């Protein structure tokens, strides 16, 4: 169980890192032209950059607390926050892009829910 949770956490952290870097550092025009980036056309640069920073923080929050052993409860808390972020992403993609990216967001949501369940429950770091 612990290995499956670490694999899921690593995958989700990689997704958060990639998404965060693209939203925080890529020019908005290039991001809007990318597949699934249509939603950025009606959004301000500050909003998109803020989402990027949140995703970068999520990548750190999924891995670092458990690795260094400082406040490891932040791992499942971050996973719960990611679930909420994916709900918002699904709503946004339904409005702009269609169902292709909604399914992808649902996969990310399921990974985060698995991490939250596992780290709050049977494979918590405090047990």
From TrEMBL:
One GO cellular component, as annotated: membrane
InterPro entries (UniProt xref): DoxX
Keywords: Membrane, Transmembrane, Transmembrane helix
Name of the featured protein: DoxX family protein
Coiled coil: none
Compartmental location: Membrane
Membrane association type: Multi-pass membrane protein
Bilayer-spanning residue ranges: 56-87, 99-120
One Pfam family cited in the UniProt record for this chain: DoxX_2
